[in-house]
């Protein structure tokens, strides 16, 4: 057997593996920031995290965060850190609203993930029901989807961050909200996410998972969390291609 033959067989096996994963999904649950768009493409998340830290310091609350938390480039890490100390407090509510306002600003300059728009429209066209389960604010999701003409593909099934931060992924709460609202069995659904927290939430909810990793670092994190490497793609293009091929095959069947 030649190396070319071996490589062809590996590609064919991977394609078939992916086909089984996506064509069995009647309900598709999407994470937002990553698989659908890069929310902070033009309004950097690190700057947002720094602004939240600076606001806390102006309130005389410098000591709430560890040095590592103060240097975090992830605004959600800052928010979670405060919530661990003061869960459900007015302080957490104010910080969450400040993050939401920053996300709303970011939505105006976010970058669509390649092939996400046509994939969403194609899945909708072939009869799948779609939902979003995200740690971002649902207000931000609706603003972005409206700008792309995609709200009707998801509404009303958009589930995201509230002031109850205990429900953020990796907790499966948002996924279960979507499943319950759509009357979906977990085995008939598919979760698309780009973070370990997405994978863990899907596993706890009993939902098959497709990882989207736009770079090697994302891929490594997903695999370390337990994602099957055959269930990770670095582009949504093969998913779209397979879905279109399967849709045409079904349409031609007598």
From TrEMBL:
Please report the name of this protein according to its UniProt entry. Answer: HAD family hydrolase
Record organism: Streptomyces scabichelini
Q: Which UniProt keywords apply?
A: Hydrolase
What does the entry give for GO biological process? DNA repair
- Gene3D superfamilies membership: HAD superfamily/HAD-like
Q: Does the keyword Hydrolase apply?
A: yes
Q: Name one GO cellular component term.
A: cytosol
Q: Name one GO molecular function term.
A: phosphoglycolate phosphatase activity
């Amino acid at each position: 057997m030649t190396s070319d033959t071996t490589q062809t067989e590996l590609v064919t096996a991977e394609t078939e593996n992916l086909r089984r994963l996506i064509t069995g999904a009647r309900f598709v649950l999407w994470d937002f920031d990553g698989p659908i768009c890069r929310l902070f493409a033009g309004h950097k998340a690190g700057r947002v995290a720094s602004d939240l830290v600076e606001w806390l310091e102006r309130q005389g609350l410098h000591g709430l965060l560890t040095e590592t938390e103060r240097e975090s480039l992830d605004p959600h890490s800052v928010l979670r850190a405060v919530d661990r100390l003061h869960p459900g407090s007015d302080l957490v509510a104010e910080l969450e609203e400040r993050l939401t306002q920053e996300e709303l600003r970011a939505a105006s300059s976010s970058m669509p993930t390649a092939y996400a728009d046509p994939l969403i429209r194609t899945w909708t066209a072939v009869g799948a029901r779609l939902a979003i389960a995200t740690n971002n604010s649902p207000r931000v999701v609706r603003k972005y989807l409206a700008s792309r003409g995609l709200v009707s593909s998801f509404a009303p099934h958009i589930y995201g961050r509230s002031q109850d931060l205990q429900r953020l992924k990796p907790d499966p709460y948002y996924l279960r909200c979507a499943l319950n609202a759509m009357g979906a069995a977990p085995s008939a659904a598919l979760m698309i996410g780009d973070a370990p927290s997405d994978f863990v939430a899907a596993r706890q909810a009993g939902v098959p998972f497709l990882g989207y990793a736009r770079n090697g670092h994302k891929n490594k994190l997903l695999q370390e969390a337990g994602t099957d490497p055959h269930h990770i793609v670095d582009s949504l293009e093969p998913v779209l291609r397979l879905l279109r091929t399967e849709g045409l095959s079904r349409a031609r069947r007598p």
